[in-house]
Amino acid sequence: MATTATTHKTKWWSGGKSPFNIEYGKVMMWYFLMSDAFTFGAFLISYGTIRFSQNFWPDPNHVFNAFPFAGHANLPLAFVSVMTFILIISSVTMVLAVHAGHKGDKAGVRKWLLWTILGGLMFLGCQAWEWWHMITAEHATLVDGQIQLLGQTTKVNPWGAAADPALIGDALKNTDADILAKLAYQVDHSVPVSQLVTQSKESLIATISQHDLKVGTPGPVAFGGFFYGITGFHGFHVFSGVIINIVMLIMTQKNVFERRGHYLMIEKAGLYWHFVDLVWVFVFLAFYLI
Amino acid sequence: MSSHYDPTKAISSSAAYPEVVEHPHHEDDATFKKKVRKTTILLSVITVIELAIGLILYAMGHGANHLVVLMFKGAVCILTLAKAYYIVSIFMHLGDEIRNFIMTIIVPLLLFIWFIAAFLIDGNSYKNLRNDFDPYFKQTTTPVIHEVKKEPTTPEPGKQ
C-alpha cells in the first residue's frame, strides 16, 4: 500500500478535479445524511436519557405483541420483524436500481424503482396499522381505583406493572357498566357486547371474576411521546423517500436521465433510501429489542 | 481506500462532472450480484439472531438475572452496529469512496460516543438522585409485584 502510494501519488488537491472524487451533489447528500443522523441520534439519546431516569420501563415484548388479523394472539416482535424485512428488501431493490442506472439500463431502473416504492408503501401501511392498533386498543388498566380501557397515546399508556389483584375487586365495583360490559366480552367472547350492556353490574362483575382478567397500571407518560415522535419522524422520512423515488421513476420514464447521459441522480436518491433503512435499524434496536 | 484508483490508466472524465474521475470500481455483473446477495443474507441472518435474542429475553421474564439481560442487550447493540456497517459500506458504497471522504463522514460521528455516554449517565444519575432524595418518587415508580399499595400509581405530570 505504502509503495503504491508513493509511485502513484495522486494530487487530489492540485485543482481541476474533485478532491473527494465524487460530484458535488453526492458530497452534499452525504453531509445532509450525517446531520440527519445527528437529529435522529439526539431523539434516540433523549429517549435513552428518560428511560435511564426511570425505575420502571415497559417491556417491548409485552407492548408490541399484536399482528394484523391475529386477534388477541400474543405474538411478540412478529409484526415488527415483518416491517424490518420489508425495509431490508426494499433497500436491496434500491441497490439493484442504482446498479441498473450505472449500466444505463432504463427498463432495469424502472423495474427496481417500482419494487422499492412498493416496499416503502408496504412499510408505511404496516406502520399505519401499528399506530392505529396502539391508539385504539382497549387495555384494562387500574386508574384512580377504577378500571379504565386505555390505548397508548402521548398522555397515557397501559404499560405499567401488573395491578395488585387485591385491588381489582373494589375497582370493578367503581367501574362504569359499559366498561364492565366490554371487559366481560374481553374475557368471554360467547355473549356479544350489545347483550352484555343490558345486564346488571353485579352479574357482569360475576362474569369477569370467573376469568383471569389481566389488569395493568399506567406506565411512564413519556413512552407514547417518544414512540410516536421517533417512529413518526422515521415514517416521515420513509414517506419523503417514497416521494423522491416516485419523482426518480417519472424522470426515468420521461428519459431525463437518458438525455443527460447518466443516472447519477438515482444514486443520490438511493443514498437517502438506504439511510432510511439505516435509521430503522437503530429505531428497531431502541424501541423493540432492548 | 483509493486502491481502486489508478491514475496511470486513462482518465476519462464523465461528461456531466468533469471534476470527477470516472469510478472504475463498478465490478462486473456476477461479482456485484454475489456481493449484494451475500450482504442481503448477512443482514437477514443478523436480524433473525437479534429477534431470537429478543424472544429469549421475553422467555426469561422479569425475574431474570440483570447481568445476563445486560449481556444479551449488549450483544444486540453490537449486532446492530454490524448491520449499520454493512448498509453504509456496501449498500451506500461508502467503502468504495476515497479515504479522505470516508473520514469526513466517520470522524464527526465519533461525537456519538460522548453523546450517548454523557446523556445515559446523566439520566441514570437523575434516577439515583431522585431515589435518594424523593421517597415518593421511589415508592410510586418502583414496580412492586402483587403487594398492597395505598397510593394509586398514576405518574406525576411533568415528572416522567
Secondary structure layout plus pairing:
The complex is a heterodimer of chains A (290) and B (160).
Chain A: H1 2-7, H2 24-52, H3 60-63, H4 78-102, H5 106-136, E1 139-143, E2 146-150, H6 165-174, H7 177-187, H8 193-196, H9 201-210, H10 222-253, H11 256-260, H12 264-289
Antiparallel strand pairs in A: 1-2
Helix pairs in contact in A: 2-10, 2-12, 4-5, 4-12, 5-10, 7-9, 10-12
Chain B: H1 29-60, H2 66-91, H3 99-109, H4 111-133, H5 135-141
Description:
The complex is a heterodimer of chains A (290) and B (160). Chain A is mainly α and 290 residues long. Chain A folds into 2 domains: 22-135 and 228-289, Four Helix Bundle (Hemerythrin (Met), subunit A) (Up-down Bundle), CATH 1.20.120; 138-210, no CATH class. In chain A, 67% of the residues lie in helices and 3% in strands. Chain A is built from 12 helices and 2 strands; from the N terminus they run H-H-H-H-H-E-E-H-H-H-H-H-H-H. Chain A has a two-stranded antiparallel ribbon with strand order 1-2. In chain A, helix 2 (24-52) packs parallel to helix 12, helix 4 runs antiparallel to helix 5 and helix 7 packs parallel to helix 9. The longest helix of chain A is centred in the C-terminal third of the chain and has 32 residues, at 222-253. Chain A is elongated and about 85 Å long. Chain A starts with a helix and ends with a helix. Residues 1-5 of chain A have low confidence and may be disordered. Chain B is mainly alpha-helical. Chain B has 2 domains: 29-109; 113-143, no CATH class. Chain B contains 5 helices and no strands. Chain B has helices at 29-60, 66-91, 99-109, 111-133, 135-141. Chain B is elongated, with a radius of gyration of 25 Å. Chains A and B meet through helix 2, helix 4, helix 6 and helix 12 of A and helix 1, helix 2, helix 3, helix 4 and helix 5 of B.
